[in-house]
Amino acid sequence: MDRISWIRSKAEGKVLDVGCAGGENFKGTRFEVIYTDINEFPLPNFMCADAHHLPFNDNSFDSVVLGELLEHVTNPLQVLKEATRVSRKKVIFTVPNEFAWPVQLKPFMPLA
């Protein structure tokens, strides 16, 4: 199962996708999703926000997703605390798998 399929299998209810980038985690699904990122993206239900200080009330979402985000923030613990604060049920996060890098980078490596 790939990362996006795994995230979708764990998510439920109203979802907050923090650090959504282009919104790939939930593109084409029927989830009710609010997307946030530090950069602007042309997505429906998008809000520009810093993951360290989410502009939502406590317990606002059933699922909060941090997909490949924690390695990009200055204070991962604070981001996890914020995700927990705004989640009613669960926080779902993924981090890169360094052992998969050779497979992911292969298309970009020159032929020898």
What is the number of E strands?
5
CATH superfamily: Vaccinia Virus protein VP39
* Number of separate structural domains: 1
Rounded to the nearest angstrom, the distance between the terminal CA atoms is: 31 Å
| Secondary structure category | alpha/beta
Poorly predicted parts: none
Biggest sheet details: 5 strands, parallel
Shape: globular
Beta content: 25-35%
Average pLDDT, all residues: 90
- Going by CATH, the architecture would be 3-Layer(aba) Sandwich
Percent helix, as a range, is: 10-25%
Q: Which series of helices and strands comes N to C?
A: HEEEEHEH
CATH topology name: Rossmann fold
The DSSP helix count reads 3
Counting copies of identical and different chains, the oligomeric state is single chain
Cα gyration radius (Å): 15 Å
User: What is the CATH class designation?
Assistant: Alpha Beta
Strands in their spatial order, largest beta sheet? 3-2-1-4-5
Pfam families: Methyltransf_11
Protein name: Methyltransferase type 11 domain-containing protein
GO molecular function, one term: S-adenosylmethionine-dependent methyltransferase activity
Organism: marine sediment metagenome
Protein topology:
Blueprint: H1 3-10, E1 14-18, E2 32-37, E3 46-48, E4 61-67, H2 76-86, E5 87-94, H3 101-105
Parallel strand pairs: 1-2, 1-4, 2-3, 4-5
Word description of this protein:
It is a single chain. By secondary structure, this protein is an alpha/beta fold. The radius of gyration is 15 Å and the shape is globular. The model has no long low-confidence stretch (mean pLDDT 90). It contains 3 helices and 5 strands. A 5-stranded parallel sheet has the order 3-2-1-4-5. Helices cover 21% and strands 26% of the residues. β4 (61-67), α2 and β5 (87-94) form a beta-alpha-beta unit. The longest helix has 11 residues, at 76-86. The chain has a single domain, classed as Vaccinia Virus protein VP39 (Rossmann fold, 3-Layer(aba) Sandwich), CATH 3.40.50.
